[in-house]
Amino acid sequence: MTTPSFKQLLTNPNHFFAFGFGSGLAPKAPGTFGTLAAVPIYWLLQDLAWPIYGTWLIVTFALGIYWCDRSSKQLGVHDHGGIVWDEFVGYWITMFLAPTGWVWMILGFVLFRFFDIIKPWPIGWLDRKVGGGLGIMIDDVLAGIYAFVLLQACVYFCPYPI
Fold first, then answer.
1. What's the mean per-residue pLDDT of the chain?
2. CA geometry: angle at 68 spanning 88 and 110, to 5°?
3. Which residues make Cβ contacts (< 8 Å) with residue 94, sequence separation at least 6?
4. Does 111 have pLDDT greater than 80?
């Protein structure tokens, strides 16, 4: 498996974004490190009005399809483990309409990682069947939607985190 060098990461925008600003270069658990790198960006975005945040999600999803597809083709590997832009977008989907606060951010992180790792139906199926940049992105988008639903249930039934 080919991994871009740090120089390639800095000089190739497709690798730079697909590899989550370098967070995907972590030697172990790059998906977890990619999700961790998405948290401070979410912290900056969390107070946006929902239409603007929703637009952010659509734009970053569309750009992710492009960046991840280009990066994987340039590396000659479909869905390289270091491509983590999909984790960024999946986490941001999880946090859509979430209350502010570290407890919710951590709970969203745990829920997203859970669904991204176990890949319940149809996430695992889509991961195996859909190719290209869309295939790289779609399983994490669905994991983000699953985590979003569960997080919103937690907000509804326990509005004051313990």
1. 92
2. 25
3. 108, 109, 111, 112, 144, 147, 148, 151
4. yes
